Amino acid sequence: MPPMQNPPDLRPDLARARVTETRRDGQPTIGMVSLGCPKALVDSERILTRLRAEGYGISPDYSGADAVIVNTCGFLDSAKAESLEAIGEALKENGRVIVTGCLGAEPEYITGTHPKVLAVTGPHQYEQVLDAVHGAVPPSPDPFVDLLPGSGVKLTPRHYSYLKISEGCNHKCKFCIIPDMRGLLTSRPQRAVLREAEKLVEAGVKELLVISQDTSAYGTDWKDRDEKFPILSLARELGQFGAWVRMHYVYPYPHVRELIPAMAEGLVLPYLDIPFQHAHPETLKRMARPAAAARTLDEIAAWRSDCPDITLRSTFIVGYPGETEDEFQTLLDWMDEAQLDRVGCFKYENVEGARSNVLPDHVPEEVKQDRWERFMEKAQAISEAKLEAKVGQTLQVLVDEVDEDAATCRTKADAPEIDGNLFIDEGFEHLKPGDMVTVEVDEAGEYDLWGRLVGQD
């Protein structure tokens, strides 16, 4: 039986690039290290697509590349440290490194540690990255060989793809510096999003993962918009392509309830990824987030009433400055009531430039750890009970990987990398990634399911 894939300390903010490409003789080649969230992964795909169109090859490692791009994350201090470590490793293994991404918004922070990097650019500064690559490794295209796939260069498996619908964020959460790094909300035109989605589905993508910093605010930055909340029509339009459509980073505005009918109708997956962050009103107030945890429970009840199969995922912060034991207990009690299906949790840490750094009453590290463990114990028990209830059900699943031991699949309730899996460990040999199959669930663990193949869609 394959081991569980998702231990409780899994970080939901990490994404990793996967590149498989052969190189022609004499082709200039660029390596890519993509750190951070799926939004950064989309940026990496766009950069590589542009480079591929100019005749560059894409290398999956440092040694086979003429230069390496490191797309960094700067959301947490631990992520900054990880980015600096990745830059250092790239310098050691390759020596010619171009840095981009969120941490690139602080070039002195990078060059102070790694003065030998060739260039530093900020997030979504595609032209500057290309200029830096041209300077380091001049292009040498072969128009008869270098054909770009219609869907561009993908860093995810071919059967699913992230679809970024906007950049930036208008919120002022005290623990977050995303608006400083990526700016205020800027939504992509709906026609551009739909055109990209259609191309992806035509290229074989079975699942579209809709991402942004604030998905439910999509289009509200347009002054001359025809509808108050454009995300509602976008979701329905995306549902017309026949792929799974999964909504990530949906801020819990009241109009989110209007997305639920599209889920009940099967146009959008019955799945919401909503960053609640905490449940105590005073903690939320110190975070500069809406302090409406009680009303949130009412909203959750309404969503489940309209779409009983809905899966709810969220992330929380424990040990935020000033968090008392009573406030933390309120969060645990709220979890008992909310019964969320999928949960991630961070221990609070200071981030340079965040307003929360100067708040009084920072929580000692050992208390943060204790609260994180108690929170995850609660979340794990809820997850285990919910998965046990699925034993005996017949579910449609998407195959992600097949090896000698099992086919690793996901149900509609599971996003790639951050949620659980369903394993088929008998009669799976003919399956391949991207297949849609029907299974009967026959066993459940704390985070994963096992099932018996019933049929192929």
From TrEMBL:
SMART domains: Elp3. Residues 388-455 form the TRAM domain. Residues 155-385 form the Radical SAM core domain. It catalyses: L-aspartate(89)-[ribosomal protein uS12]-hydrogen + (sulfur carrier)-SH + AH2 + 2 S-adenosyl-L-methionine = 3-methylsulfanyl-L-aspartate(89)-[ribosomal protein uS12]-hydrogen + (sulfur carrier)-H + 5'-deoxyadenosine + L-methionine + A + S-adenosyl-L-homocysteine + 2 H(+). [4Fe-4S] cluster 1 binds at residues 37, 73, 102. It is found in: Cytoplasm. It is an enzyme of class 2 (transferase). It comes from the Bacteria. Binds 2 [4Fe-4S] clusters. One cluster is coordinated with 3 cysteines and an exchangeable S-adenosyl-L-methionine. GO terms for biological process: tRNA modification. Its cofactor is [4Fe-4S] cluster. Keywords: 4Fe-4S, Cytoplasm, Iron, Iron-sulfur, Metal-binding, Ribonucleoprotein, Ribosomal protein, S-adenosyl-L-methionine, Transferase. Its EC number is 2.8.4.4. Signal peptide: none annotated. GO terms for molecular function: 4 iron, 4 sulfur cluster binding; aspartic acid methylthiotransferase activity; metal ion binding; protein methylthiotransferase activity. Residues 28-138 form the MTTase N-terminal domain. [4Fe-4S] cluster 2 binds at residues 169, 173, 176. GO terms for cellular component: cytosol; ribosome. Belongs to the methylthiotransferase family. RimO subfamily. This is Ribosomal protein uS12 methylthiotransferase RimO. The gene is rimO.
